[in-house]
Design goal:
Helix content of chain B: 40-55%
Oligomer: heterodimer
Order of helices and strands of chain A: HHH
Strand content of chain A: under 5%
Radius of gyration of chain B: 17 Å
Number of helices of chain A: 3
Amino acid sequence: MTIPMTREQVVNRYFLEMRCKVLEVAASLDRVDRAEPASNGAADPRLERLQQAIRVLLENGPGRAENVQMIFSRAYDPNWAQ
Amino acid sequence: MYYVEPHTHMISRVTDDYERLARGGCVAVSEPAFWAGFDRGSAEGFRDYFRHLTGFEPKRAANYGIQHYAWMCINAKEAENVTLGREVISILPEFLDLPAVLGVGEIGLNKNTMNESIIFREQVELAVKRDELILIHTPHLEDKYMGTMMILDMLAEHGSDPERVLVDHVEEHTIRPVLDAGYWCGMTLYPVSKCTPQRGVDLIEMYGDERITINSAGDWGPSNPLAVQDFIVEMRSRGHAESKIRKLVYDNPLEFFSGCRRFQFTPREAEAEVGA
């Protein structure tokens, strides 16, 4: 099953939503920057993962959502039962 | 359009939600046993919960013309207590023979611990032995991928028939391994975690409409019990055929439930003929 819309129709339909979500991320990162940093100066690994995820958005091709999911996932250890 | 809500926790919802579900075309709901927001102190607490799911909720649903089905189990979170888990498993047969009980669920993993895996395996064993359908919860957020893969490993060990198992709460990174292994999958539409209706439709466009069901998993946390209706609207707005939408939100869940030997469902059309 494919999407029964042209690329132009998809952009028309979702442009404002996407713009809104990008702005939300931008404003959220600004909010983090405005807040007092951790007293020990340590970087928050969650923010590092967010930066990795944002870089994925700029890649070409399909699978961005899956790749972002994997950035926020613990790795699978096939020997977990041992 | 009539639709089936295959995963919702009505015990956590007000009666107004049944009314809103009915107004939106929902004709049946299935309610898996889950973690109700706090750890219960004893197996007797679970027995009362199961009585609620199989007694009170079907009556409350019926007031709005909705057929109510339930699933029985000890959930992944409380399964961390293995002793309690085994006590609860021992009382499941009291409820599994009731006519509106569809099988064992939602079992699964929460934090992917060894204790959770012990109780998961024992409940799969019970289900396979009794030839019951199995409904599986996969973990949240960063634990989902690892937990889903662990669950697939354990299901393979038990040789359970993939067509009798539904692995729920799939997202972009877990849908493929579940479908490739031959299982049914459930897609949960949540406001923040799990899938949005838009991403849910994206996954349908990428993976097709076979062995997939759509649910809201409405519960006591941030959730929207009407989310399947949002999915229907999103499908329509993109130009998908009504027959495709109906397959996903009505035919597919009924097909999976039909694997339960006790399952009986009266289509709304048949009810109308009886009443005429």
